[in-house]
Recover the amino acids of this structure.
């Protein structure tokens, strides 16, 4: 994750002017509660350091680690692992949060926000105790080395400053009813009852985006899912493990197969990929990575596949800082490319005209 963008999410809250103002100014309260939250999520208060092995070792290698001993503020040279921006509106508050993907994944990011909002909701009191403390002890494969030497001599060799071309973004909202109908349809078509709502939605979007792109029938296309490994490992990691414990689960087929078969066939294909992502696969991937480390680069998106990020399990709308639930959870410009819930304009227009896709969306609306 060294060369991908920060996780960027925002929380928009509606606070009518008639609402009773807290005794402590909001910005001061947020600063205080953030400081208290960082006492539990201390890696976020650290910074990254790059170390070259001693001269006795190979000179063409290095490793990167999080240093939590000295808190470093942004000075143009050192980048923080966490950045927060608060904007006070006439009738609301917007809290934007950028979270370095090296220090943690989406599960850890959401957990941090949940606990920060919990502390704020209490008015900053009782900060020594939170409902679900993080497990900050890092996990790695049992017989792998504690240090992984990257096959580079300088950071510039693996850090990519990726800037995507202009993208158009649109938000499709699905109701509970429309998702339930989609799940039932996928399971009925493949005579199953184990395809999840998320897998059925992935199948629908994958088919619709591929159809909109008008790719050749023999083109290979993939649906990639960011999958959490905590529960897949044996024994499983603690549910509130803090760090990166994700891998990409990939389902691949030809455009012809994807579009000639029904939703249930595609949903089952996605389900099989998820079901076979087991402890052995997770560990085997990590063992192979230690022998030949590679880094993720956003520019490698190919233009004929799709990437589903984030998760419906992330409790982003549960972040109540004392003003009620967020009315919206937008994401920033980071980590976006063609095929990640956004697309180029000509493809987006075609997607909005896709009958199968819009038949599900039309129950809810487009924003």
């Amino acid at each position: 994750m060294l060369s991908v963008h920060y996780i960027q999410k925002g929380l928009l809250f509606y606070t009518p002017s008639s609402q009773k103002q807290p005794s402590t100014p909001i910005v001061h309260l947020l600063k205080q509660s953030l400081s208290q939250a960082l006492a539990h999520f201390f890696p976020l208060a650290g910074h990254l350091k790059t170390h070259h092995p001693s001269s006795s070792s190979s000179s063409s290698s290095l490793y990167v680690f999080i240093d939590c001993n000295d808190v470093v503020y942004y000075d143009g040279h050192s980048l923080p692992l966490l950045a927060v921006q608060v904007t006070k509106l006439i009738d609301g508050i917007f809290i934007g949060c950028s979270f370095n993907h090296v220090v943690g994944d989406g599960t850890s990011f959401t957990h941090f926000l949940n606990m920060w909002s919990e502390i704020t909701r209490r008015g900053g009191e009782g900060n020594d105790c939170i409902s679900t403390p993080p497990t900050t002890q890092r996990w790695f494969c049992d017989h792998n080395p504690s240090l992984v030497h990257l096959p580079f001599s300088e950071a510039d060799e693996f850090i990519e400053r990726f800037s995507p071309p202009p993208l158009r973004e649109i938000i499709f909202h699905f109701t509970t009813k429309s998702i339930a109908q989609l799940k039932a349809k996928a399971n009925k078509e493949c005579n199953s009852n184990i395809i999840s709502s998320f897998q059925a939605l992935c199948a629908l979007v994958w088919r619709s985006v591929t159809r909109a792109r008008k790719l050749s029938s023999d083109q290979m296309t993939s649906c990639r899912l960011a999958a959490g490994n905590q529960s897949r490992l044996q024994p499983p990691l603690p549910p509130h493990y803090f760090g990166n414990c994700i891998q990409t689960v990939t389902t691949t087929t030809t455009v012809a197969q994807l579009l000639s078969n029904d939703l249930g066939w595609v949903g089952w294909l996605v389900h099989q990929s998820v079901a076979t992502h087991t402890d052995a696969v997770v560990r085997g991937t990590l063992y192979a990575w230690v022998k030949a480390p590679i880094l993720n680069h956003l520019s490698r998106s190919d233009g004929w596949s799709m990437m589903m990020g984030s998760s419906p399990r992330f409790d982003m709308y549960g972040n109540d800082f004392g003003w009620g639930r967020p009315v919206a959870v937008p994401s920033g410009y980071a980590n976006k490319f063609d095929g990640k819930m956004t697309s180029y304009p000509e493809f987006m227009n075609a997607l909005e005209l896709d009958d199968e896709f819009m038949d599900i969306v039309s129950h809810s609306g487009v924003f």
Notes: The radius of gyration is 22 Å. The mean pLDDT is 84. The CA atoms of residues 352 and 358 lie 7 Å apart. The chain has nine helices and eight strands.
